[in-house]
Amino acid sequence: LESSYVSKYSADLFRAALNGDWKTVLEIASEGPAWLRTAITKGGETVLHMAAAARHLEVVAVVIETDPTSLIYTNKDGSTPFCFAAVSGVIEIAEMMRQQNYELPNIRGRQGMTPRHMAVLVGDRAMVWYLLKVTDDNKLTDQERTEILTSSIDSDIWPVDY
Prior knowledge:
Elements: H1 3-19, H2 22-31, H3 47-53, H4 57-66, H5 81-88, H6 91-100, H7 115-121, H8 125-134, H9 142-154
Helix pairs in contact: 1-2, 1-3, 2-4, 3-4, 3-5, 4-6, 5-6, 5-7, 7-8, 7-9
């Protein structure tokens, strides 16, 4: 593909993800679902990363329905779109993703952190509570549990009062 062709679609997908324009995403996906797995930022984020970060449920739904494999693509830091959903605080987006792949809450992203640890760092109690229920604690090391606890205290979300 020509670079201008790629650039045009990348820019369109970027704008669509940020603006919640699911129709444009669907149009571009009709050209081929591979576009949904293409990096659209310098950091290597896909349209699904950006839609999750921008909290656009409809765009996330269209991407997942069109290309469920886009859930496992990572950016340059190693973060999946689920990591972005965990930080966004929109539980409905995280749950929609998890319904397609139950392993997503256990996949580490930036700096080897779990999505739950990322949610703790941004201080989102509701997301942390949700992720407590769906993350497999057996896949965490004792050091990771300690780091999450320490981060919870630092973020003033410990104790969890649910």
